Structure formats: C-alpha cells, structure tokens
Amino acid sequence: MDLATLFLNGAIGAFQPHNFLILITGLMVGTIAGALPGISFVNAMAMALPFTYVMEPVTAMCFLGGIYVGGVFGGSISSILINIPGTPASLPACWDGYPMTTKGLSTRALRIAITASATGGFFSAVMLAVASPPFAAFALRFDQPEFFAATILGLASVVAIAKDLPVLSALSMFMGLLIGTIGIDPMYGIPRFTFGVSEIQSGINFTVVMIGLFAIGEVVDLLVRNVDLKKKFAPVAGKQISWWELWGLRNSIMRGTGLGCMIGMIPGAGATVGAVLAYGVERQASGRGAEFGTGVEEALAAPEAAKNATTGAAMIPLLTLGIPGSAATAIMLAAMLIHGIAPGPLLFRMDPTLVYTIFVSMMVANLLMIVAAVLVARGFSTLMRVPPAILGAFIIVLSVIGAYGVRNNIFDVYVCLVFGVLGFIMKRANFPSAPLVLGVILGPLAERYFLTSLANYDDNFWIFVQRPISGTILALAAMFVLWSLYPVIKSRFGKGAGAKAPIGPQ
Amino acid sequence: MSFSNRAIRIGLPIGSLGLCAYLWFHIASNNAALDAVPNAVGPGGWPRAMLIGLAIFSALTLVSELIEWRRSIRSGVEVAIAAKEPNGSQAMALVGVAIILAYGFSIPYIGFAVATMAFLATWCLLGRVRSPITVLSVSIIGTIVLLYMFVAVAKMPLNRGVEPFNSATISLYRALRIY
Known about the structure:
The structure holds two protein chains of two kinds.
Chain A: H1 3-14, H2 17-35, H3 41-52, H4 57-82, H5 91-102, H6 106-140, H7 144-160, H8 166-179, E1 183-184, E2 191-192, H9 206-225, H10 229-233, H11 243-247, H12 250-265, H13 270-285, H14 297-321, H15 327-338, H16 345-350, H17 352-383, H18 388-407, H19 410-428, H20 434-456, H21 463-466, H22 468-493
Chain B: H1 3-24, H2 31-35, H3 42-75, H4 77-84, H5 88-110, H6 112-126, H7 132-153, H8 165-175
C-alpha cells in the first residue's frame, strides 16, 4: 500500500464516530487533569486504563492519545493563570506566562500557549507519521552512555533556567539530586539514606515532591498575601493577540517545535527536558534574554511548542521499537499489550491501518486541542472568581489526593507536606525550587545510566566521551552551560561588573 | 532583602553543610557494604558525588550571601528593610502551614472525609470567608463532590481512619451510595 492509501485508511479509522467522540472525550479529560494542580495527565491515563479494557484497540489508543495530548498542554493553563504547573513540563509557562497574567494579559498568554502547543504537537504528529522508521533507527543506536549524556544535557539546562545566581540554582539542583538517591540503589539493592524507614526504600517520588513544592507552597503564599484573584487575574479587554502578532512568533514556535521533536525521540528525556531546553535556547536565540521571566511572549511560545512537540516524537520509539520513553507512553504500551498488539517494526507490516489511525488521531488531537483548551481555560477562568481561600483549600485537598494517588500511600502525603513547607520557605527567600525538582526527576535516571554504562564498558570512565553520540551530547551540554553563563560572566567581569544580571525568570 | 529572608538564605547553606557532613557517614545502615562491591563506583559512589557537589555549592552560596549581607548592611539598606518588616504575615504563614500539616497528618486517624470537611471549613475561616452558609456549603458539598470523584469514579481507596471515624465514614459512603 502506498503512503496516501495508508493515510486514507488511517483517516477513515480516526473519523469513525465512536473513535472521534472518544478522542474528544480523552482530550477534555486530559486537558482538565493537566490543568488541575496535583492531578497529572499520567494519573488520568492510569485511571483511564481500566476503561480501555472494554474498547476496541484503535478506540483505546484514541482515548489515551487524546488524554496524552490534552494533558501535556493542560498543565500550562494552571501555570499561566495561577502560577502552579499542572505538569513538570509546564514549569516554563509559569516563568513568563504568569507574569503576563499579572499584567492583565492572561487571555493573550493562553492564546499564545494554545497556538504554540497545537503547532508543535501537529508538526510532531506529522513527523511521527512520515519519519518513524529512520528516527527509530537513530534511537536504536543509543546505548546507556548516550542516555546518560542526554540526562546530563537536561541537568545542564538548570543553569539556563536559573532564577538567581547559578550557584544558588546549582545548590538547589544538588539538593534534588541527593533526594533522588534516597531508596534502594538501582544496581546492587542496597538501601541508602533510608534510616530504617521502609516507606522510603522505593525512593521519593518526584510527582509528590513537585506537588508539595509548587502547589502547597503557592497556596500558603496566596493566603499570606490575601490577594483578590478576581481583580488580579481578570483579563484586560483590548489586549488580545491578533493572527498577525501570532505570526510574528513563528521563529520561536518553530525553534521550540524542532527542539521538542528531537528531545521527544530520546527515551527518558520527554516534555519537561524539551520545554526547559527550549526556554534556555530561546533565551539566547531571541535576543531578549535579559527580559525573560517578566512576561516575554517568545519565552512562552517556544517551550509550549517544544512541550507538545515531544508527544508525537515520544511515540516513535514506542511504536517502532516497543520502547516507552515516558510514563505516559508506558501506559500506552500497557494498553496495546492488553489488546494483544505487540508494538515494533513488524506492527507496521502486520497492522498498518492501526498504526496510521494512531498517526491521524494524533494529528487530529492536536488540532482539536485548541477547542478543548479554550473550553477548559474558559471554565478555569471561572475559578478565578472564587475567593482565594476557597480556591486554595481545594488546591491543597487535590494536592493531598494527588500525592496519595501516586502509590495509594499515606506516607507520600507526609512527604508532600514536608516539601510543601520547604517550597514555601524557598519561595519566601527567593530560592529557586525548579532546579530541585529537575534534580529529583533526572538524578535517578542519570545514576542508573551512569552505573550501567560502567558495568557494560569495563568501568571505562572515558566511554562517555569516546562514543561519538554521547560525546557530542556531552559537548552540547558543556556548550549550553557556557552559553548560558556568558551573560553572568560578562556582567561580573565586564564593563558592568558588580551588578547582578538575572539569567532566567524572575 | 528582609531579615527573615536573609536568615533563610544564610541558614539554608549552613544547614546543608551540616547535613552533608552527617549524611557522609550515614549513606547506608552498614557503610562497609557500600565499599565491598567490586565496581569502580559502587552503590555509594553516586550519593557521595552528590554530597560533595551539594557541600561545594552550599559553601559557595554561604560565602556569596555573607559578602552580600555585609555589603547591604554597610549601605544601610538591610537595616531599613528590617525595620519595615511586618509580623502579621509571618504569623498567618505559620498558622497556614500548621493547619495543612495537621490536615495531612490527621487523615490516617480521622479519615479523609472528616479531615477534608474540617480542613475546608478551617481554611475558609482563616482566609477571611466569614459567611457561615458559604463555609458550610464549601466544606460539605466540596467533600461530597470529592468523594464521588475519587471514591466512586476513580475507585481510590481513600483512608477511612480509625474507629469511630471508620464507621462514620462508611455510614457517609452508604448514605451517598458509594459503598
């Protein structure tokens, strides 16, 4: 069958009424789940998994694909409107989306985010459909040193997202990395830093840390400031964005899309690394780096595009190799296996209609996401009319449920609360908390890849730079750090020495 | 920067340095097991590297903050800000944190339903929502909606607490037809 026929068959499958309706349902569920602080789209996908047992395989994939696409964007709604990221990947939306909201530009910020996300996601879905086999062949060449190098690249981005001096961010990141070492080590099974507490032998879950740091810390701060959300967040009329203005952001969106597509293909990296890297790259490439963190539109558009551009790209190793690169794609793999579908190169030959239906569904989902996002954002804006105390109380309760729901374990609630207090303290002292979260997420991955690399290559420490791909990625990481540090070094030792130069969001 | 913020910015790296020193000798319950593994790094290598990194950046942060503190005291900025610092917000923050902690830690004892109802009402009062109708409706209706969402739909086994709260929660679930 030629490509056109395959796409036509895929479109017929995707536009079957029940598949189309379930795709819309998935999008709405994902967008709402992503937008609710403490309830991630991964939680929503996991909760939706039992519902897919009764569905046809194609319908099940449409449902989960819809939740995935909608959920990755949904986190940005809460980031932009209330400065609480619904998902880790929505962190950059807080840095420049929320300042736009405080300036009375929430509708404008949401439109930029929706357009950029839909564009990034759509191009990523096209790339998934057209270029799956060669991209999968590239990812197949990755071994442990390359995965390690990719996580180091993610950690290097901490310097780029630094709110204050890089030293302070590095301190926060190392705190996160240390927290990531808690529990049984990945190679030898020896418990570390557990102090006899059995509940932390399986480690500290990053979702719990993230909920605590961002949601609870933010709500206490909201209580103390006692702001009028209605006044604060009501969008000012006449400050909408026109299509022509959106067209002006095309370079940022395309940069983000390209980066997101590349990062999405790397298993383990995902939307968070893609969004954070895109923010760092945009900070340099836009020429407005010094203003980042104050509500710069390019700084919002690029990471939003990158974030959703990872969704289609992350499906490439899943569909062609059967390798899930993230928790979300792991749930999709589980759904496929439940229905007796074995993803891999043979799937393209054995059931091309299913594969191309997934491709078309992903494209359609990214376009329909605009409608879903607008509907959810409108409903979400209604929340702004609620007194902050009531809104905050429900955020706390949802955060507690979210922390509990990760493993149905009350201990995770305690951990979440402890990190909530820490988050509030860090917020009061203008201490960057985002690097801590990135450290907790990427630390265990980096350690596992580092140890398995050494085990596989006779304890050769040089293997990371000897292998061309890992060496290139590590060189990129080093360049990225130096590139990001350049403005700071220049301000310290250049003509304007003595003045502190902000290198990231305020 | 206010005095309390400055105290945090200086206190955090000091605490972090102390923590690093303590954790260096307490990575595992039996530290000898860490070095018994025939590997270039072993299970203790990565945590040690992280401790070293944390200690280095804690020390750098401490030095940097002390220098900046000295500079701001000399210029008189710090003293002026300390004089203006309000106490009310600090007390409110402490009360808020205490209520959140009490809510989370009480769930295993009094159950999710009762704890959530009490928390929602308390938080509303703390947030200056004074209308009894609003407070009651938010706490009661809010809890019922949450129970439907997470117990009935998502089948989440939320904690019911110890007796008599366990029986009370079961009665509530029965009344709501979700048990």
